[in-house]
Predict the structure.
Amino acid sequence: MNKKILLHQFYALMKNMPDFSTYTPESQLHEQWMGSAYAMVYQWKPLPAISIADSIEFMPLQSERNKHLERILHALSHAIADLQAAVGSDKELIFNADSTDNFADSLSTLLLTSHENIFVISPDLNIEAFLSPLIEANHKVRLRVLLESASKERLLKVNETIDTEIIKIDMRVAEDIQDQLIFVDEFNGWECKQTQSEVNNQSYLIPVDTSLAIYQRRQYEELWNDATPVKQ
């Protein structure tokens, strides 16, 4: 678990907390937020996540709603305080090549904070690196992958080995993709960068500015709609 990645995801979650005075049992917005809260707390510590799962189950009961919302917020605040003690406050979080010692661990942490969906854009993605942590954790999620058209044949081969009971994957290809982005649920975006040297290439993740992430996601959602599906 990469504590800096996880703490940043908690910050994004709290920033996007919906107004629970408008909660209804049919609200997808509130359901998404609570599901993400569960996923993130489970990464921090599984036991407190059980309390969140119980609270989510009883949220439709209006007489009990405030009590269970308080339980969810208590677990979140406890997790944030614990992670802050370990890695510092939000202003002290640094994401660059020098601060990343294990890309696989960082990527796994980010992907496992998802509740429902992950949207990945890349010109040439190592799809196995994305699938492995999700499959190993039996983390059921919808994964959308938008890649450069030149990757189509490799995607077809990888697709034959995917366990679709765990991961609902939708792969499409398009031309002129240059960005390497990861959008987890609806809260924020991350960019995957690489440093190149004569010794080795190092990958690392950095969060995308909120306004820029919204703009980029809108662009790539439009491109996704026109992209060519990779048949499964």
